[in-house]
Predict the structure of Cytochrome c oxidase subunit 2.
Amino acid sequence: MGLKEGTRVPRLVKVTGLIGLVGVAATGCTTDEVLRFGWPQGVTPQAESMRQLWTWSVIAALAVGVIVWGLIFWTVAFHRKKTDELPRQFQYNLPLELIYTAIPFVLVVVLFYFTAVNQNYVLAKPAKPDETVNVVSFQWNWEFNYPEHRTPDGQPVRTVGSSSEIPLLVLPTGRRIEYHVSSTDVIHSFFVPEFHFKRDTFPHPEKNNQDNVFQNTIDREGAFVGRCAELCGTYHAMMNFEVRALSPDKFDRYMQLRTQINPQTGQPYTAAEALREMNCGELCTPYAVTGVPFNTDRTGGAPSGQSGTK
């Protein structure tokens, strides 16, 4: 009996290892994708910080799980009822009770520490950001305005989404950006998956004692889909926008155009017109590339500025 049980364990280990290896290989994931555990690839230092916290938290949870599963399988395999003799009892084993009380406490303290450190880093708001953008949500679209950049009539550069056009939030890479988020009607949520971050937008956040300001820095150029992540009414699922990250020189050229009059229309350049005028390849595609507008009259709410300004 002892020999059979002795050979059974290595065989079980081999089978379990083989199943695990086949399971990992069958996913077709790269090493980087496995370490991200399903998270999208971040484009900000803050996103990478959160990804690392997530990865190590999952690894710690898996390690605890393996130990617990191992103890369960060990008990099932080697402590099956063989006689009516009562097995050795441990309910009053003080050292053992201290161990299984101390280990979870240490795990919680360590997890709390790293969570607090990452949270402080992600929510940090150093003074004098390089760019500021106001994000205004409304049923069921978005308005983005840049208070530091003014059109010839003295109004801030503004982009407002419509039923026929997904709004573009054009931002520079390599610069610290400060976002001020708010809503004109109900609670929405500003969410960009590649930021690994979302922030609810409230009407009158100053009256609701809500922190509606955060900052980040975008590492690379690209187009990244943005969504409303708070159920807000009939067309919530269609309330999308697109972050268009441009290098600093392209962003400066974009803003230069947005603050000028388009000679063909006699009005300040819209986002689409400015990007078309820049003619810098895929990054300057004048319309969203991460989604298509939902053709409906979404007039449940209104932006904070002039309706219809693009």
Notes: The first helix runs from residue 2 to 27. The first strand starts at residue 131 and ends at 138. Residues 18 and 203 are 55 Å apart (CA to CA). The chain has six helices and twelve strands.
